[in-house]
Amino acid sequence: MNLHAAILALSTTLLLLLLLPALYRLHTILSPTRPKPRLVPGENAHILIVLGSGGHTAEMLSMLSRAELDWKNKLSRRTWVVGEGDGISAERAGGFEREVIGGGEADEEGEGRWSVQTVPRARKIHQRVWTAPWSCVRCAWVCWGVLLPSEEEERESADFPDIILVNGPATATILVFVSVLMRFLDAGGCHSRGKMRTVYVESWARVKRVSLSGRLLGWVVDRFLVQWESLEGRVGGGRGEFVGVLV
């Protein structure tokens, strides 16, 4: 064996030694057989909800208003994520807190009960395609900061979200991929403690074909819910749970 062949063999061996543990780690996080998260994982849970503006926000709030959830006791901490410039969704999140959760009295934002976090849009309407990678990276960077508890939040006993609930906007797709990266790295022990389990709800408007966001996240999220029986099992290697109309 000449020197060139020996170096190539050594490099291939080293690459495999590095790659195989990473693939196994990724499999443990994304395996289809992994336990499904419950929407209400326990007492005093932290839920993060992404509002995607327009129809995405309307569907998400309609779904949440119909859900029989113990917001005060079991979901005592809520984080709402909205895209940059989407003041309407931020206002609607506040209205939901006051009218649905607060029972007419507003919980105080920023005191450990609920907050609205703004992140850059992954891609703006009519944005040039070649500029999208930069905006996606910028969005991912800010999403990392939103998911990772700050020192001040840790002093208030805040933690990673237990459940991340999304229904399709591009910003939500980036945030979910960031959460998977954090679980892969077990940042702050988030994966070993069962944090940041993801639930994707496909839009009611999707009857025959899953959306682009759905196709991207089909293999990644912990649960993928569809609202039409025609979409059952149509994503992520047979995933896609038909649960009826949620909105």
Automatic annotation (TrEMBL):
One cellular component term from this protein's GO annotations in UniProt: nuclear membrane
Keyword 4Fe-4S in annotation: no
Any one of the GO BP annotations: dolichol-linked oligosaccharide biosynthetic process
Membrane as UniProt keyword: yes
Keywords: Endoplasmic reticulum, Membrane, Transferase, Transmembrane, Transmembrane helix
Membrane topology of this protein: Single-pass membrane protein
Family matches, as InterPro entries: Oligosacch_biosynth_Alg14 (IPR013969)
Subcellular localization(s) per the UniProt record: Endoplasmic reticulum membrane; Nucleus membrane
Primary location recorded for the protein, binned into one broad class: endoplasmic reticulum
Domain of life: Eukaryota
GO molecular function: N-acetylglucosaminyldiphosphodolichol N-acetylglucosaminyltransferase activity
Functional description taken from the UniProt entry: Involved in protein N-glycosylation. Essential for the second step of the dolichol-linked oligosaccharide pathway. Anchors the catalytic subunit ALG13 to the ER.
UniProt similarity note: Belongs to the ALG14 family.
Quaternary structure and partners: Heterodimer with ALG13 to form a functional enzyme.
Record protein name field: UDP-N-acetylglucosamine transferase subunit ALG14
Organism: Zasmidium cellare ATCC 36951
